[in-house]
Automatic annotation (TrEMBL):
<keyword id="KW-0762">Sugar transport</keyword>
<dbReference type="Pfam" id="PF00367">
    <property type="entry name" value="PTS_EIIB"/>
</dbReference>
<feature type="transmembrane region" description="Helical">
    <location>
        <begin position="234"/>
        <end position="251"/>
    </location>
</feature>
<keyword id="KW-1003">Cell membrane</keyword>
<dbReference type="InterPro" id="IPR013013">
    <property type="entry name" value="PTS_EIIC_1"/>
</dbReference>
<keyword id="KW-0472">Membrane</keyword>
<dbReference type="GO" id="GO:0090588">
    <property type="term" value="F:protein-phosphocysteine-N-acetylmuramate phosphotransferase system transporter activity"/>
</dbReference>
<dbReference type="Pfam" id="PF02378">
    <property type="entry name" value="PTS_EIIC"/>
</dbReference>
<keyword id="KW-0813">Transport</keyword>
<feature type="transmembrane region" description="Helical">
    <location>
        <begin position="378"/>
        <end position="398"/>
    </location>
</feature>
<dbReference type="GO" id="GO:0005886">
    <property type="term" value="C:plasma membrane"/>
</dbReference>
<dbReference type="InterPro" id="IPR036878">
    <property type="entry name" value="Glu_permease_IIB"/>
</dbReference>
<feature type="transmembrane region" description="Helical">
    <location>
        <begin position="178"/>
        <end position="196"/>
    </location>
</feature>
<keyword id="KW-0598">Phosphotransferase system</keyword>
<protein>
    <submittedName>
        <fullName>PTS alpha-glucoside transporter subunit IIA</fullName>
    </submittedName>
</protein>
<feature type="domain" description="PTS EIIB type-1">
    <location>
        <begin position="7"/>
        <end position="89"/>
    </location>
</feature>
<feature type="transmembrane region" description="Helical">
    <location>
        <begin position="308"/>
        <end position="331"/>
    </location>
</feature>
Length: 544
């Protein structure tokens, strides 16, 4: 039954993105089906957003359909199978048309597949040009390296949490050593996986990137002395593996260019591992180790000395960072902290941004009692938002409204300040993995205090984010004009006079040019579109 459901969802999506002929690539991340499209104009955005199971769409360098965690991993193979089946069943190309005779009325010029492909390539190039700043391209590559590791980080992190609980309670002593090995095995070798993915992302041979990175975690590296001190296995961690694999890619490219083909299979791998390996041992490991140590020390100092302020800033600005794609810069920092300290204390603070969105959505739901369309959107998106999947609430509710997006960020800032304040008191709350947030982060909590206290602090942060996001949105999220325009039963076609009487007009007065004020011609907010209708594609994270 579940398999039929996933296949049905894939079958509903495929024709709305232009069919198999329009799909060039199919991949998925934590929450999104990411499609490369030959012609963006063939996509039926509104119909796609109305498909049950589709939480929203986001357009970046790929067309991203938000399906949610778990669902996307099951729908993607079905979608790929349908694409292959449709391509296999596609009819052969029609024979060339006979040239028109003299004096005959010329037939309309048919659009060929080549012309469609060229048009699609032009649209894709224009879209990429808008987002192809060097910084964003670099951060996107970083995300492509680390995002595939997130499922293993989550699985091992949960096992580590269970093992810690059993150990503290003194239960199952015969099983806890095995659980410890399961939880720690991946982290012990994470540098190898980072090296493999880095070489793949930068166009080298993946296994050579993994081979060079494996030097970092080899136990015998402890016998090597550099700059007067002994190296230690794992020194430099994922940052060292990243640098080593990038170096290996460039050495390999040089070899492919200059080494004769007859001996390429012997010389290129040897020179690549030898040169990049020696540079890693006698340079990168030491430098990356110092950087990793500095990141850990800096994060500890920031939270211990400016915890409440740092939490306020991080929790409040995280969603704007996501909108700009700059949040990807935090991924290697999180991973470095997990590798060196066992958890990242930044993620629970950043997760408060989602709590602000939930509180905001509840306020919108109560404020716009007659807007049945928007209330349906909130009801369908709320469970995912509580579990930490924020895209449906962001793109379907708060961002199109304008002001509520800002008040949601205020809620996230308050929740972040709450957790940061406890860090200043010495009660650090962290996560053993990256990816989940909201309630889904509870099984991954770790820190320097008991599990009960960690749960209490994190739960208190969520409640603070919910409450402040709700209050800020309820009292300051709408102007009088917004309430008049938006508080309507869209399905029933309620009149403007009835809308004006549907809600008390006690909102904050409208200021000229204020965020979220009336948009062009009967619309509201910066998107120029009535909320409650499916959101227009907007840039967002590539992690999912």
């Amino acid at each position: 039954m579940a398999e039929n459901k996933n296949r049905a969802l894939a079958a509903a999506i495929l024709p709305l993105v232009g069919g198999a002929a329009n799909v060039t690539t199919v991949v998925h991340c934590m929450t999104r089906l990411r499609l490369g499209l030959a012609d963006r104009s063939l996509v039926q955005d509104e119909a796609l957003k109305a498909v049950p199971g589709v939480m929203g769409v986001v357009e970046d360098d790929t067309y991203q359909i938000v399906l949610g965690p778990g669902t996307v991993a099951r729908v993607t193979p079905e979608f790929e199978a349908l694409v292959e089946e449709e391509r296999a069943a596609a009819p052969a190309p029609a024979p060339a048309a006979v040239p028109a005779t003299a004096g005959a009325v010329p037939e309309p010029h048919p659009v060929t597949a080549e012309e469609l492909a060229a048009r699609g390539a032009e649209l894709k190039a224009e879209r990429k040009a808008r987002n192809a700043t060097p910084l964003k391209l670099f951060l996107r590559r970083i995300a492509n390296i680390f995002v595939p590791l997130i499922p293993a980080l989550i699985g091992c992190g949960i096992i580590a949490g269970v093992n810690g609980l059993l150990t503290n309670l003194g239960w199952a002593p015969g099983v806890t050593p095995a659980l410890g090995a399961l939880a720690s095995g991946f982290m012990a070798l994470i540098a190898v996986f980072v090296g493999y993915n880095t070489a793949k992302e930068f166009g080298g041979t993946p296994i050579l990137g993994g081979a060079v990175a494996s030097i970092i975690v080899f136990p015998g590296i402890g016998d090597v002395e550099v700059f007067g001190s002994q190296l230690s296995p794992g020194q430099g961690g994922v940052l060292g593996a990243l640098g080593a694999a990038v170096l290996a890619v460039y050495v390999e490219r040089w070899c492919r260019r200059w080494v004769p083909e007859a001996v390429d299979v012997l010389v290129t791998p040897t020179v690549t591992v030898l040169v990049s390996g020696l540079v890693t041992v006698f340079g990168l490991m030491f430098v990356a180790g110092q950087i990793a140590s500095g990141i850990g020390t800096g994060a500890d100092w920031l939270l211990e000395n400016t915890g409440a302020f740092a939490g306020f800033v991080l929790g409040g600005l995280f969603l704007p960072l996501v909108m700009l794609g700059l949040h990807q810069a935090l991924i290697p920092i999180h991973t470095t902290l997990i590798e060196s300290q066992g958890y990242t204390a930044l993620l629970p603070i950043l997760a408060m941004a989602g709590a602000g969105q939930v509180g905001c959505a509840v306020a919108v739901y109560l404020r716009l009692r007659r807007n049945a369309s928007l209330r349906r959107t909130i009801r369908s998106a709320m469970p995912a938002g509580i579990l930490g999947v924020g895209e449906p609430l962001i793109y379907g509710v708060s961002l199109p409204l304008g002001r509520p997006f800002i008040t949601a960020c205020v809620g996230g800032a308050a929740g972040g300040a709450f957790i940061g304040a406890f860090s200043m008191l010495g009660d650090t709350v962290g996560s053993t993995a990256i990816g989940p947030s909201g309630w889904a982060l509870f099984p991954l909590l770790a820190g320097n205090q008991s599990l009960g206290l960690l749960i209490a602090v994190y739960g208190g942060g969520l409640l603070t984010g919910y409450l402040v996001g709700f209050l800020a949105t309820y009292f300051f999220g709408f102007s009088k004009q917004m309430l008049t325009d938006l508080n309507a039963d869209v399905d029933a076609g309620e009149s403007g006079e009835a809308r004006a009487e549907a809600e008390p007009t006690d909102a904050a007065p409208e200021e000229p040019g204020a965020p979220g004020g009336p948009g062009p011609e009967g619309t509201d907010g910066p998107s120029g579109r009535r909320p409650g209708t499916p959101p227009a594609p907007a840039p967002a994270p590539a992690s999912g």
